[in-house]
């Protein structure tokens, strides 16, 4: 039966809480999913640690649950976009300030 496999603890987070609060709660509890409730303690949804990290990082996390034909192609495309948007500093050189205009 399902009750033999389920976790006994269910964690809730209020929908009005800041993402930082949710992230701290995820780290403290070591859970990856919380039930989201409103001010009346009614269930309004769920949130995962992946959802929070995507918002904080501003990037989509592609994993095996995303619906893509070829995850490697998606990852390669994202790596190219990241390489274009980030400046790399050689390890043996000190970074120098630049004017990006």
Record the strand order, biggest sheet.
1-2-3
Our estimate of the beta-strand percent is: 5-15%
Shape: extended
> What class, by secondary structure content?
alpha+beta
Give the helix tally: 3
Query: For the terminal residues, how far apart are their CA atoms?
Result: 62 Å
Oligomer: single chain
Provide the residue-averaged pLDDT.
80
The fold-level CATH name is CBS-domain
**Secondary-structure element order, as H and E?**
EHEEHH
Rg is: 20 Å
Describe this structure in words.
By secondary structure, the protein is of the alpha+beta class. It has one domain: CBS-domain. The chain contains three helices and three strands; from the N terminus they run βαββαα. It has helices spanning 19-29, 49-57, 71-85, and strands at residues 12-14, 33-37, 43-48. A hairpin with a 5-residue loop joins β2 (33-37) and β3. α1 (19-29) packs across α2 (49-57).
Summarize the structure.
The chain is of the alpha+beta class and 101 residues long. It is 35% helix and 14% strand.
């Amino acid at each position: 039966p399902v009750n033999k496999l389920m976790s006994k603890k269910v964690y809730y987070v209020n929908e009005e809480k800041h993402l930082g609060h949710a992230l701290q709660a995820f780290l403290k509890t070591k859970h990856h999913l919380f039930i989201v409730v409103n001010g009346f303690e009614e269930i309004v949804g769920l949130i995962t640690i992946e959802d929070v990290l995507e918002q904080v990082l501003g990037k989509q996390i592609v994993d095996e649950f995303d619906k893509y034909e070829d995850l490697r192609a998606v990852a390669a495309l994202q790596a190219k976009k990241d390489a274009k948007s980030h400046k790399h500093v050689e390890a043996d050189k000190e970074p120098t300030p630049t004017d990006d205009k």
